[in-house]
# Entry
Amino acid sequence: MAATASRATRVLRKHWKGYAFLIPVFAVLATFKYIPFFNALIMSFYDWNGANVRTFVGLDNFIKLFQDKTFYVSLKNMGVFTVTGVLIQLTVPLLAAVLVFHVKKIRLQNMFKLWFVIPLVIPSIVIYLTWQWIFAGDYGVLNQLLEQFGLESWTHAWLGESKTALASVIFVGFPWIGGITFLIYLAGLMAISTELFEVARLDGMNAWQRFIHLELPLVRSQLKLVAVLTVIQQIQSFENILVLTNGGPGQSTMTPALYLYIQGFSYSKMGYASAIGLVLFALLLVLTWANNRFVKNTETID
# Structure
């Protein structure tokens, strides 16, 4: 222990200038991440309105939460969003990245890359409002198209009916390709040695065999990363639901993150909202640990 401490001290003294540059980073993280988190941890044990009312209630917020039917409905909806989101992000962007990677003409390949990256610079709120317009009732683009094709019986108030609202929210962003996920997969494919592709060609592998036996195993680390990022995004995000349905109709699209927002900022139940946030944090921690524990990286594949 003493030798380790001495070695760490020597390294710190030698590279203190480099470590000094990290101080502003940790200061910002502490201000906007760590301090609010620990404040929420403390306030989850209080009946707090975010201002002048703060009464210690112990575990009452958590007891109330686990008896809250709306919270369980939101968990079920979150599970649907998370499972479908992970399935989509592990398949569609990967296939798109593989297709673009194997485009022979560099200029055409770069053009495809640009098209798939453009959605990154479009504000999310613009995308959600566009899909709200597509799914609108009588004057929505989707219903208008269905009527043009003589399919009036298929029209719906897509975001206003319980039986279609959940699926409509999942469909937002179709075809689910553009963005950071596509770039992550493309970077993983570009890191594969060209010699391996030459060996696959000499062995007579077709495109499907090459994908299954070469490309898919060697982007395992990227698949793992995308799975973690998608789970985190699906559990934390609420702005899409807020803009599209506000959790309705009824509670058919309510999620825990949106429920937290409503309890905290609409009803001023900041203590209760903090309890919801801690439960979500614990759930994310467990899911992330499970992914890191049971999903192998590319380097650890036998």
Summary: Residues 270-294 form the longest helix (25 residues). Residues 19 and 287 are 32 Å apart (CA to CA).
